[in-house]
Amino acid sequence: MLHDQIARGEFWALPDHGGASGASRRVGVEVEFAGLTVAQTAALLAERWGGAATQTETHCVTLEGGALGKLRVELDISLQEKWLEDLAAASLGDLVPVEIVTAPLRLAALGTLSDGLDALVAEGALGTQEKLAFGFGVHFNPELPEDPAAILAIARAFALLEDWLRHSAPLDAARRVLPFVNPWPVALVDLLAEGAAMDLAQFARAYARLAPARGFGLDLLPALEHLHPEALEGVPEGQLKGGRPTFHYRLPEARLGDRDWSLAYEWNRWVIIEHVAADAALLARLTEGWQAHRARLVPLKRDWAGQVEAMLDDAGIVTRAARS
């Protein structure tokens, strides 16, 4: 399986899009886990990376001046009132994960982050696989390419690869039932596979109609709010948290401590999506394949995932991504 060929110990580079180098694009990273407190995590990272730790909120510590620049360590809860935060932290314990949130990083810094996660595991950090009730994720926030056509191509590539991504590395049971990593609606995939001319503003209006929420494996609302806020009028106000010039890829799992998992593995799966987007011929074959798949009397997701696996294998996409 191609899944087994994806590097676990090396971070692959982003491809070029529209003649612009992918090397200059940075990525912010968010990692959730249990087993350590906010204070313990911040102290361990400060010891490893240097920098000064400052408690900025009740359950949030900011680390500045270290090897990764500025980052936050916090409880991953959205409760706003302090007494509710304290109640949740005290009563739910490990079910409220600690989260590391980095500033945008260069590719070379991802290895430093990965080494830090390994150090946290050695001190007791737990990944999502450790308990049935855990549902911890990794979020990557890669900066958008400059070319609007490339942004659309990446959205199309993700739409066509999402079933394969989920089938090749099935999600933890707890994450499947949480409303944070839902699959894109089939109607959105169909729209992206139609091949009709569509600019980003038109896509933003369609996305607002078909997927007006944050809880998808790839959440495009921050990017679209940054690019075309006027196109998102129909999106519920609570789903718009401010525009950002990044993708928000939240499908990956935080399986800290699992020997077959690594931060590099999850990042490299995103890199494959972008390589597919940069290959117009492969993207066209996938689009045609999806249209034929949808025309079948009973289209099954596992059948489409198998077709994607075969097309990616024929195109040598994993080897190409590894060499970039």
Number of strands: 8
Mean pLDDT: 91
Shape category: globular
User: Roughly what fraction of the amino acids lie in strands?
Assistant: 5-15%
Estimated radius of gyration: 20 Å
Order of helical and strand elements: EHEEEHEHEHHHHEHEHHHH
3D structure, described in words:
Mean pLDDT is 91; it is low at 78-93. This protein is α+β, with helices and mostly antiparallel strands and 324 residues long. The chain folds into 2 domains: 22-126; 144-324, no CATH class. The protein has helices at residues 38-49, 82-92, 107-122, 148-168, 173-177, 186-193, 200-210, 221-227, 263-278, 280-295, 301-315, 317-323; strands at residues 27-33, 52-57, 60-66, 69-75, 98-102, 138-142, 218-219, 248-249. The radius of gyration is 20 Å and the shape is globular. The chain has a 6-stranded antiparallel sheet with strand order 2-3-4-5-1-6, covered by helices on one side. A two-stranded antiparallel sheet has the order 7-8. 45% of the residues lie in helices and 13% in strands. A hairpin with a 2-residue loop joins strand 3 and strand 4. The chain has 12 helices and 8 strands.
Lay out the secondary structure.
Elements: E1 27-33, H1 38-49, E2 52-57, E3 60-66, E4 69-75, H2 82-92, E5 98-102, H3 107-122, E6 138-142, H4 148-168, H5 173-177, H6 186-193, H7 200-210, E7 218-219, H8 221-227, E8 248-249, H9 263-278, H10 280-295, H11 301-315, H12 317-323
Antiparallel strand pairs: 1-5, 1-6, 2-3, 3-4, 4-5, 7-8
Helix pairs in contact: 4-6, 4-9, 4-10, 4-11, 9-12, 10-11
